[in-house]
Batch of 4 targets.
Target 1
Amino acid sequence: KAGVTQTPRYLIKTRGQQVTLSCSPISGHRSVSWYQQTPGQGLQFLFEYFSETQRNKGNFPGRFSGRQFSNSRSEMNVSTLELGDSALYLCASSLGGFSYGYTFGSGTRLTVV
Amino acid sequence: AQKITQTQPGMFVQEKEAVTLDCTYDTSDPSYGLFWYKQPSSGEMIFLIYQGSYDQQNATEGRYSLNFQKARKSANLVISASQLGDSAMYFCAMRETPGANSKLTFGKGITLSVRP
């Protein structure tokens, strides 16, 4: 059974550019969540998508957006990159119910220079 | 106020010994779930164990067990017979209220180093 796949694994972008990260959840999982991990702030929730609808959103500026496709694959986009956006971005998939756990991918490490 | 508190800065344990990683939480929601994840240097978050707030017994998964003390709002992870591969960051996380608020709130994490 394939796990959660995140692409790319590493990314270097210039300040002001935009970036799109991709997450393919476990087959059958309808919920995809995104988290940002930095040394200073730790792990912070970005947003969650369930059946193509954003179900929950964290406290991040509008430069951070996401979407989910009909096959449950999700993308997150960060526009006008800032140096502080450098982080490990983790995607987690779940069946979506409260009793179910989350399976995380290996993350995309974004460096903004 | 922090919802998940992990105050141990770094832990060291001898191989084959047991170790306890502390986690306290804060919630007024009667229905919640507690998770422990392991994050090796590769970055992937690996699920270890889950405890629901209404579960009567402490959760166990192989060498991992959770010492759940609801009244004290603590959910400590116990790793028995430590192995060198257990060296990693360990995160405690909580999920409150089913439905719309389905996100995990993480603690700052604890670094565990297993000595041979």
Target 2
Amino acid sequence: EPEVTQTPSHQVTQMGQEVILRCVPISNHLYFYWYRQILGQKVEFLVSFYNNEISEKSEIFDDQFSVERPDGSNFTLKIRSTKLEDSAMYFCASSPLAGEHSNSYEQYFGPGTRLTVT
Amino acid sequence: AQKITQTQPGMFVQEKEAVTLDCTYDTSDQSYGLFWYKQPSSGEMIFLIYQGSYDEQNATEGRYSLNFQKARKSANLVISASQLGDSAMYFCAMSTNPGNTPLVFGKGTRLSVIA
């Protein structure tokens, strides 16, 4: 069964450093998302991406964040200058075009990247 | 704006018993979808079940069923015949039309299954 993959599984970085989190969505999916989950808290939406551009972003997704789909398979989240409060689990998710099947709204999540900022 | 409320921070259930995890939602949209995800201690998010707002029948997937009461804006997850492997965090989430929009999650319920 196809799945979303994410690398690395765990990233430790120093405050102020740039990090890039990588995701490979399911190949025929068209919508891509990044979510984050601070330890012990709920999952929060960061940004969605469709047709090579950001379709929606939350208040959390400020100028420190950027997303890119550099080729036909990868989807990346960059944090330019990490802060302590960026420590969280970051989930990538993808979904197919709505209407293709009954669960067209289902988003398939990757296993997550645990980011630790020290 | 959409909102998901899960009022049970933690639940215990005896193995082989059924358990209901509560979820209420708030939205002004007429068309929306409701989801349940399981998050074991390893951290991944596992999709369990989906209910569309226009679906007349409650969704079922194996031991999972969704008790959808539209007038009450509730979408409770029922797990039948609980197993030790069901111990995890459970998140209720929703998204609205059109198409593929971000999920809004609740705070989750931690389920512990006791042998």
Target 3
Amino acid sequence: EVQLVESGGGLVKPGGSLRLSCAASGFTFSDYTMNWVRQAPGKGLEWVSSISSTGSYIYSADSVKGRFTISRDNAKNSLYLQMDSLRAEDTAVYYCARDAWADYWGQGTLVTVSS
Amino acid sequence: DIQMTQSPSSVSASVGDRVTITCRASQGITNYLAWFQQKPGKAPKSLIYAASSLQSGVPSKFSGSGSGTDFTLTISSLQPEDFATYYCQQYNSYPRTFGQGTKVEIK
């Protein structure tokens, strides 16, 4: 069974940093592109960043470029999102999702940026 | 960036109704289109990929069609568990973009 479990969310002050993790199981992690998608309270879905199976290709939304860094460790079956210079508008539930068409999603982890 | 526009934004329907949601891309995306269902407080769930391919385990009352710029998601015979918000997403190019969502409500 495919499972994606996010962790690392919490309350952080504006300008602060947070590192999200996504633990994958039930499939060959190193075969798949992985994604981060977020959802602000009461809002729609927003794609954040994607990383290719080997980590060679990385794409990020303009809204997070230069502040967020996606990475992966295929030996640990884990996906990461390093979030720096956080802003109030980054407050959202962050989901990891598998493959180009996001066929499986984790349960999400809430990031709240507030003073 | 490719803009995805869903219509309607919300629809009120009764159990047993047939519901169709439209998603339009601002430029051609061949068939690189996915549909998701999201219930309150839950993660999105994949329904359709490649515009018309049913995700494993998804009931056949859900169907997708279209190519190029115009796509539809149809739910035949709406059931209580189908009341949710539905999103389309293009994965033809980066940045990936989602439609704004269509909320299917009980009439």
Target 4
Amino acid sequence: KNQVEQSPQSLIILEGKNCTLQCNYTVSPFSNLRWYKQDTGRGPVSLTIMTFSENTKSNGRYTATLDADTKQSSLHITASQLSDSASYICVVRGVGGGYNKLIFGAGTRLAVHP
Amino acid sequence: NAGVTQTPKFRVLKTGQSMTLLCAQDMNHEYMYWYRQDPGMGLRLIHYSVGEGTTAKGEVPDGYNVSRLKKQNFLLGLESAAPSQTSVYFCASSWGQGNTEAFFGQGTRLTVV
């Protein structure tokens, strides 16, 4: 069964600290993996997308990594800010067309405290 | 830029009542989707549309119907609401599949009592 597992479920860090969120998936064959940020009461917004051939990609203070061999991805947040408080969702697309191939993780809820 | 707009934002229904959720996008996207988000679970696809006049079932379609009469609008209907349909509903749109990004609305929080 295609699954996307995220850890930890929730995380509290102090402003200015770094953190790393994990995403493990079993979706196969794999097409791409996208990280979304979802603020409370809002819809998800894309942060970055990782394709099969990419190992790391940065978007400002966000850096995503992908290991397609071990089926793992991480999202590293550097120098956290209060505005980083949100849920971060990992979404994996399988190969073969059809939007049913998009599998969402349950998300990691991050709280950044002053 | 409005992007994807959902109405209403909040709604409380009694069991057995019906309602329609409206999604409108102004990006001329071909693809539109309805998801539900429940605590501790990832978003699950209810129905989707690959173009005006087309609809298809997603992962959890039972109890819902949809229509895409106009390219910019995607309606989600609940004919006879049940407490199990208490959830947050998100509409999204994209111009294609593959690596294309889906843009989400702000969500509709529905409570069925």
